[in-house]
Specification:
28% helix; five-stranded mixed barrel; alpha+beta
C-alpha cells in the first residue's frame, strides 16, 4: 500500500520502487505501508506478512532453535516457536535434541517455515516441511531449489499431454520424393553425416552440425536444431510448464530440465543413429569467414555420431578418431571454416574472455572427488562459432521479414561502471586511450585485452572488463549485442533448455508455413510486442535465477572440498580488494577466500578505491588487484560458504568452524608442500563433533 503525502486518494498506477530499511526484515510478498517524499517512496512498516514460505537450514544452538534463511531475497534468521501441538512450557522443559524434532526437524535439516510474526529479535515461524534431512546426499541442492522457488515436480495434468507424444520418429511418415517429403514441409537430410559435439557428461543434444567446402569458394555450414516447436505448442500444458521454468538449471549433482525427460533426453535429443525432426539453418560461409546466403527449413535428420569435445580436439591435434571418412571430412571442413570465421570475428572486434571455468566431479557419496579446470580449445570454439552464425541468421531472417521476436541484447560499459574501469586500469599502470574519454567500442576493448594478455594480472583485468558491461537479456527491441559486436543477435540453437529459443523457432516456423501458401514476406505474428516484452522479462529473471543457484550450490561444494586442506599453503591471486580485506583465488582448488585486513600485519592499511589497493601507512606495503600471494588456508565454514586465509607465516586466529581438519596425502595442483603450524585442529567441543568426525573419516577413506 502507498500512503500519499496529502489526504487525496490516488490510484497506485504502475508498480514503483520502495526503499525498505533492513530492520523491517521485509520479504517478497509482504504488504508494506509506504510514504512518498519528493517522489521517493519509503516503507514505514510491514502491515502484513506474505504467505510465502521461507526456506533455510535449521540450527540448534544451546537453548535456541532457529532457521538460517537461504532465500536469495531474505538473509537472516527466523526463530522457531512452539507449534500448535506443542505447549511452550513443554518445549522449554524438553531436551535440546528433542525440542526441534517435536517442532518438525533436526539440527542441520533444510526446512520450510511459515512466518507467524516477529518480536524485537526478528521474525518468528513454525516448521511446516522438512525439505532435506541433514545427512541427505542432495541436501544443499534440494534446499536451495526450494529457496530459489525453482519448480522440480511436473504437474499431474502434464501426464495426459506426454501420453499423446510418439515413442519415436517414424521415418515412413516422411517418405521423400526427390529429397522432399510428400507434404512438402520437411527436407530429408538423413544421408548427411551430421554429428553432435558436446561435453562428455551431456545428455540432451539439441544441435548437430555438418560442413563441406564448396567449389565456388567458402563452405556450406548446416546447423540442425531439435524441432521442439513441433511437439510443444503455444498454450499447451507443456508450454505453460516450459515458460514457468524458463530454462534448464544445471547443478553439480543434478539437472532440472525445462522440458520433461521424455522430450529433453529422448524424443527431441539428437541421439546418434536415431531419426529426429529438426529446424535447419543452411548457410554459405564466404572464404573470408563472413556469412553469405542462408535459408531455413524443416527437416528429418539422423545424427551419424555423438562426439565429445575431447575426442574432436584429439582428432584435430593428433588425427586420431574412430569414425567414418565422411565424419572426419566433416570435422576437417568445420575446423577450416572456424579458422576463417575466427579471423573475421577478430577483425570485427568481438570480445573473447578466457574465463576460469571449473567443473566438479562427484563420487557415489555425493562429495567432490575432483575439481577440474575446463580448457577451451578449438573443439569448443568451432561449435560456439557455428552456433553464433546460426543465431545471427535467425535474427536477420526475422528482422528482414519484420516478424516480432525476442532478441538477445547486450550493452557495453557506461556510467559509474565505466569510471571504475578507467580507475582500475590507471592504478594498474595500463595506458588505455580508449578509456580516457567517451565510451569505448567493442573493437577498442578487444584490442586492449589483446595488448595486456602477457601481463600476470591479465585475467583479473579482463574479468573487470567483463563485469563493467551490462548483463545480456531478452527484449523485442533489437539494440545489438555489444560483446559479440553484432547488429543482429538472438538465441535459436538451444530450444530444449531455453524458452527464448523455442519462441524464435515458432516465429520462423510460422513464417515458413505461411510462405508455403502465400507470397514471400507475409508476416504471421504469433505474439504481440507486449506479450514478448512480458515473456522476455520472465525468462531473463529465470535465467539469472539459474545462474545464481548454480553458483551458490557450486560454492558450497567447493568449500566442502577445500575443507580437507585447512592448514595447507597455497599460491593465490588477488581477485578483489575491499576496505575490509582481500579476496584471493587459490591455485589448484580454485576456491576464493578472504584475507581479512586485520591479518595483513601490524601496520595500518588504508583502502585506496581508485587504485583498488590496500596500502600500509608506515611501511608503504601494497596489496593490489592481480597480485600473487602465498597464503595459508586457515578455516572453512561450508554452510556459510566462507573461507578464511592468512599470509604465510602469520599467526592463525581461533577457528570459528565446528568441523576439524581433514588431511590428505595427495595435494591439489598449486598447493605448497609441507604443513603449517596450524595443521592440527584442536578437539571439537560442539554437540555435532562425533557425527561430523565420523563423516569426515568416511569421506577421507572414500577419497583415498
Amino acid at each position: 500500500m502507498l500512503l500519499p503525502k496529502d489526504d487525496v486518494d490516488r490510484p497506485s498506477g504502475k508498480p514503483v520502487r520502495v526503499k525498505v530499511k533492513r530492520d523491517l526484515k521485509a520479504r517478497s510478498g509482504d504488504l508494506a505501508v509506504a510514504v512518498e517524499i519528493n517522489g521517493v517512496y519509503e516503507a514505514l512498516h510491514i502491515n502484513e506478512r506474505g504467505p510465502k514460505l521461507l526456506f533455510g537450514r535449521l540450527i540448534v544452538d544451546q537453548n535456541i532453535c532457529y532457521v538460517e534463511s537461504e532465500q536469495p531475497d531474505y538473509k537472516g534468521r527466523v526463530s522457531i516457536v512452539a507449534s500448535l501441538e506443542t505447549k511452550p512450557a513443554d518445549a522449554v522443559a524438553g531436551a535440546i535434541t528433542d525440542f526441534p524434532e517435536r517442532l518438525g526437524g533436526k539440527d542441520g535439516d533444510r526446512v520450510a517455515v511459515s512466518i507467524t510474526g516477529e518480536d524485537r529479535y526478528g521474525l518468528q515461524g513454525n516448521i511446516v516441511e522438512v525439505v532435506a534431512e541433514r545427512d541427505a546426499v542432495d541436501r544443499i541442492s534440494a534446499g536451495l531449489l526450494k529457496a530459489y522457488q525453482i519448480p522440480t515436480v511436473w504437474p499431474e495434468a502434464l501426464a495426459e499431454s506426454l501420453s499423446l507424444l510418439p515413442d519415436a520418429v517414424d521415418p515412413e511418415s516422411y517418405r521423400t520424393v526427390g529429397g522432399v517429403s510428400e507434404d512438402k514441409t520437411r527436407i530429408d537430410l538423413t544421408a548427411l553425416p551430421l554429428v553432435t559435439i558436446d561435453g562428455a557428461d551431456s545428455r540432451d543434444f539439441d544441435d548437430a552440425v555438418y560442413c563441406q567446402s564448396v567449389s565456388s569458394g567458402g563452405w556450406r555450414l548446416v546447423v540442425a536444431i531439435a524441432d521442439v516447436g513441433h511437439y510443444v505448442l503455444p498454450g499447451s500444458a507443456l508450454d505453460e510448464c516450459a515458460i514457468e521454468r524458463g530454462n534448464s538449471v544445471y547443478l553439480p549433482d543434478q539437472v532440472v530440465p525445462m522440458l520433461p525427460e521424455q522430450l529433453s533426453n529422448d524424443l527431441c535429443s539428437l541421439r546418434p543413429e536415431q531419426y529426429r525432426l529438426a529446424l535447419v539453418c543452411d548457410m554459405h560461409i564466404n572464404a573470408n569467414g563472413t556469412v553469405g546466403e542462408f535459408t531455413f527449413y524443416e527437416a528429418i535428420i539422423r545424427s551419424w555420431q555423438r562426439l565429445t569435445y575431447s575426442q574432436v580436439h584429439t582428432y584435430l591435434t593428433q588425427n586420431e578418431l574412430l569414425s567414418e571418412p565422411a565424419v572426419r571430412s566433416n570435422l576437417d571442413a568445420l575446423h577450416e571454416c572456424y579458422l576463417a570465421q575466427n579471423l573475421q570475428s577478430a577483425e570485427r572486434g568481438a570480445l573473447e574472455f578466457d574465463t576460469r571455468e571449473v567443473t566438479l566431479k562427484l563420487n557415489d557419496a555425493g562429495e567432490v572427488a575432483e575439481l577440474l579446470r575446463i580448457e577451451r580449445n578449438d573443439a569448443h570454439k568451432l561449435i560456439e562459432t557455428a552456433m553464433i552464425s546460426a543465431n545471427v541468421c535467425a535474427a536477420r531472417f526475422l528482422a528482414d521479414k519484420k516478424v516480432p521476436t525476442l532478441y538477445r541484447v547486450h550493452s557495453g560499459p557506461e556510467g559509474e561502471k565505466l569510471d571504475q574501469l578507467r580507475a582500475l586500469f590507471r592504478s594498474a599502470g595500463v595506458s588505455a586511450s580508449c578509456l580516457k574519454s567517451g565510451t569505448p567500442t567493442t573493437k577498442q576493448l578487444s584490442g586492449l585485452l589483446s595488448d595486456i594478455q602477457e601481463r600476470p594480472d591479465a585475467q583479473v583485468l579482463a574479468f573487470a572488463v567483463l563485469r563493467s558491461m551490462g548483463q545480456a537479456f531478452y527484449a523485442p527491441e533489437n539494440t545489438g549485442h555489444f560483446g559479440l559486436s553484432l547488429e543482429y543477435y538472438t538465441h535459436f540453437t538451444s530450444p530444449i533448455r531455453r524458452y527464448a529459443d523455442l519462441l524464435v523457432h515458432r516465429a520462423i516456423k510460422n513464417l515458413l508455413a505461411k510462405n508455403k501458401h502465400a507470397a514471400v514476406g507475409v508476416v504471421v505474428e504469433a505474439y504481440s510486442e507486449q506479450q514478448l516484452t512480458e515473456i522476455g522479462q520472465q525468462i531473463s529473471v529465470t535465467e539469472r535465477r539459474a545462474e545464481d543457484i548454480s553458483r551458490d550450490v557450486t560454492d558450497w561444494y567447493k568449500c566442502s572440498y577445500a575443507e580437507a586442506f585447512v592448514g595447507d599453503k597455497f599460491l593465490g591471486q588477488v581477485t578483489g580488494v575491499t576496505d575490509f580485506g582481500l579476496f584471493i583465488e587459490l591455485e589448484g582448488i580454485w576456491v576464493q577466500g578472504l584475507l581479512h585486513i586485520s591479518n595483513l600485519g601490524s601496520d595500518y592499511f588504508e583502502y585506496v578505491p581508485e587504485q583498488l589497493a590496500l596500502i600500509g601507512e608506515r611501511s608503504g606495503r601494497r596489496f593490489q588487484l592481480g597480485q600473487m600471494l602465498e597464503v595459508v588456508l586457515a578455516d572453512v565454514n561450508v554452510e556459510s560458504r566462507k573461507v578464511d586465509l592468512l599470509l604465510q607465516g602469520a599467526k592463525a586466529k581461533k577457528s570459528h568452524n565446528k568441523v576439524g581438519k581433514k588431511r590428505r596425502d595427495k595435494k591439489p595442483a598449486g598447493s605448497k608442500s609441507g604443513k603449517s603450524k596450524n595443521s592440527k585442529s584442536k578437539p571439537n567441543k560442539s554437540h555435532k563433533k562425533s557425527r561430523k568426525k565420523s563423516d569426515k573419516k568416511k569421506r577421507k577413506k572414500d577419497r583415498e
